[in-house]
Amino acid sequence: MYQILVFLTIYLAGLAVAGNTNSKPPKTVNHRAVFEKQCSRVAIRLTPYTPRQHYLDALCMPEGKSSSVRPEWTNMLLDDCLGWDASNGGNFIAKKKGNGIRTGRCTKCEYRRDIELALNNFSCYCTNVDESEKRTRIPGTNKKAALREFHLDEAIRVDKDGKVHCVSLKTGPVPDTPPQLPEVPKQERFEID
Predict the structure, then answer these.
(1) Are 80 and 96 spatial neighbours (Cβ–Cβ below 8 Å)?
(2) Residue range 69-98, pLDDT digits in tens
(3) Rounded distance, CA 71 to CA 43, Å?
(4) Residue 81: inside a domain, yes or no?
(5) Residue 77 sits in a domain of what CATH number?
(6) Is residue 2 assigned to a domain?
(7) Which stretches within 68-169 are classed as H helix?
(8) What does UniProt give as the signal peptide span (predicted)?
(9) What domain range is 68 assigned to?
(10) What is the rounded distance in angstroms from the CA atom of residue 108 to the CA atom of residue 126?
(11) CA 102 – CA 53 distance, rounded (Å)
């Protein structure tokens, strides 16, 4: 009898520690699916003036809005969200104000929509790479470069208002302005006679 009580106590304690076994694992967010659902048109635009810069232009719908609301164009400078890792031949990384496209000396960048989630959706021809990596000709030129690819969803997000922003790797969207610090009260001045 004593052994049955000990076994039953251990069993019930195990159930109590385990909690609700019917609970579901936390839901993960597929940011590419959210981006492609909210943004119907996406393009990479190269400015015609010097320095030439690559912008991501997207026609995005604010989150949770009905189809009667018109989507709005939003854009962002990609160099504000991408950095360049010169190690291992040179590759893009998610980095705030990283100037990755400029540092990698990249051109002919494009966004590819509706591809498998495991594949990169952004690519550029870059010349700031090891010479041995330059195996491809830049379209329309005789210059050799390396094709570099990246998951843009590691660097950008669409906010609830339908605007594209850089991602801070730890805290979510990067604000446009720094947070306001509380004002420090001014101390009274004392004059010594």
Answers:
(1) yes
(2) 788 899 999 999 999 998 878 999 999 999
(3) 15
(4) yes
(5) 2.30.60.10
(6) no
(7) 100-103
(8) 1-18
(9) 31-173
(10) 9
(11) 8
